[in-house]
Amino acid sequence: MANRYLLGFDVGSSSVKASLVDADSGVCVASAFYPEKEAPIIAVKTGWAEQDPQMWWENAKLSLKKIMTEASVKGEDIKAIGISYQMHGLVCVDKEQNVLRPSIIWCDSRAVPYGEKAFSSIGSDKCLSHLLNSPGNFTAAKLAWVKENEPELFGKIYKFMLPGDYLAMKLSGVINTTISGLSEGMLWDFKQKQPADFLLDYYGFDKSMVADIVPTFSVQSEVCAAAAAELGLKEGTPISYRAGDQPNNALSLNVFNPGEIASTAGTSGVVYGVLGEANYDVKSRVNTFAHVNYTTETDRLGVLLCINGTGILNAWIRRNVAPEGISYSEMNDMTDAVPIGSDGVTIIPFGNGAERVLENKEIGCSIHGVNFNKHGKAHLMRAAQEGIVFSFCYGMEVMQQMGMDIHKIHAGKANMFLSKLFRDTLAGVSGATIELYETDGSVGAAKGAGMGCGIYKDHDEAFATLKKLGVIEPDEKLRSEYLQAYALWKERLGKEI
User: Fold this and answer.
1) Which residues of the chain, if any, have pLDDT below 70?
2) Which residues contact 134 (CB under 8 A, 6 or more apart)?
3) Exposure check for the chain: N or C terminus, fewer CB within 10 A?
4) pLDDT digits over 124-144, tens only?
5) Which residues contact 410 (CB under 8 A, 6 or more apart)?
6) How far apart are CA 200 and CA 129, in angstroms?
């Protein structure tokens, strides 16, 4: 049998990564990302963040060239292409598919007032019951900013799209999007099961500006002659999967079913859980989007909790509290002698901007319960990690109030999940089993493409080779101690908010 490979792209704000997966063995044979230093973000004003989409295309080409050379793979050996991308961005093109302005990306906050005004004018009940969120600072609100502030440019827009839609357009010459993509832009009506006409009408967007909708897993388009020549791919290669980075991370961890959770804990932390019925948080402390396997017949919603103060707190503790030159592993060793609950010391970890889970309050980081006669550096180190875990569990309680039964957490073995203290505390407080995997977003996108083009019959086959690196079960003997420490943390948080 001739070699069959799947190609996955992951369009991030810092780089574009490409991976080649052997379709038959499920093994990643090559990966590369560009640029090797973080890609620039244009910030003309405070709170603005833009990137040139052409830069994503150039970085995708460089990454692809490197992996094809490294793996000695020919264009005709690649059987399908999948795309993961940074969520909530806005790309505007004219009828000739020329980009009209830099993309307004996920961390740009200029559109907040436009989302808030829509929420107030349309009404919270209508927005929440149809969009499952406030219009917020998402793609639709960003387009409203362009309409008001750049009217001449707005008049030239033929289609608006997300970063992943742009890369697919460059590969195929075809413009389309997915229900999942529209939902992350606040443009999918979950009640009517169609694009959110009421929000389009409110903002004054012509419905023709919305790209055609294709299923997440399907032959969405094919590589065109021009892109094939430019990239060394075969014309007609199917582009058969596309998803935002957080739904795609869940897919990469084989998280598809209600009650399953995918989590990451880098600089900021994410808990992404699957819900089996349309629901929302009335305070919009978490966001709800269509998951990769959502259809108009089957509700599969991804509920997204983001905690800004995660690994950044642990890094701050290492720089400012830990003995100089100490590693994270050595920090963890220092905490071994400190009991669960850090002997009464608690840290509220919200020192990295406003937190959505706190209804966008910015309360800062605070340290409570320090006794100068008995507490030292190790207590602060442990309390920091416990505080991060407790913030995750605080958000997970919102998910549980929405009807999510949390029993299993899937995570990549990276960042904070490398810490035994972090893992044991999370299992101990949540009562969930944690499964650690070797995973990657671009590899997940490649396997998603295999599902979309029919190489894999379902996600179980696609992820049969997903490497499980460890399982952490909650320690029932210590559960009451973890819950007691969490209760004290919540009590002290209550006084701050």
Assistant:
1) 1
2) 115, 116, 119, 124, 127, 128, 284
3) N
4) 999 999 999 999 999 999 999
5) 250, 253, 254, 255, 260, 261, 262, 263, 435, 437
6) 16
